Amino acid sequence: GAGVSQTPSNKVTEKGKYVELRCDPISGHTALYWYRQSLGQGPEFLIYFQGTGAADDSGLPNDRFFAVRPEGSVSTLKIQRTERGDSAVYLCASSPRGGGPNTGELFFGEGSRLTVL
Amino acid sequence: KQEVTQIPAALSVPEGENLVLNCSFTDSAIYNLQWFRQDPGKGLTSLLLIQSSQREQTSGRLNASLDKSSGRSTLYIAASQPGDSATYLCAVRTGGTSYGKLTFGQGTILTVHP
Questions:
Q1: Which residue of A has its CA nearest to B52?
Q2: Hey, which of A16, A22, A60, A75 has its CA 20 to 30 A from B7?
């Protein structure tokens, strides 16, 4: 597709359940990022990938959160034993490699809204 | 730790007015700064990207400036329109590389009324 695609757009789950959120980046973008946005706040960094490897996972809040990108394209954010405080919009972004004036520009998806009851 | 602050938190103006949104950051060792627009319930749309070596970028009615040494950026919107109503976010990339995390401000909620 032309842009970053995230599924599902909305997810309602019960406390304690396991959730997977998927991100399909722009074709050819080597860098992929996950952010979390709570109501009225700016996005907060969770993790970013260069290719298949997690280059920086310092934003993951605890070990219930995990993300993978096995083939260097699609990524899945996994949340175990969900808690009400995990409710937020989870945003994915991708960025192309290479130089030029727009190096490092991020392109975001529409987000996955997670509600934990 | 990089911290980004945006002022004002909210702004309401009549259509046609020129306006300025402010962004400040605590660590001046940034690689670039990016301004985004976010409509309610939507993702982020990139407006302007300023590399650390640049002073400003322009796109249509938007002009963003960067003063890295003082840790400040402004987004100037000329001749505002109701369609400009949205939340505007600035974000900085710290660390001297083109990759790595962005640190966001909390945003300025802009309302342009007819």
A1: A101
A2: A60
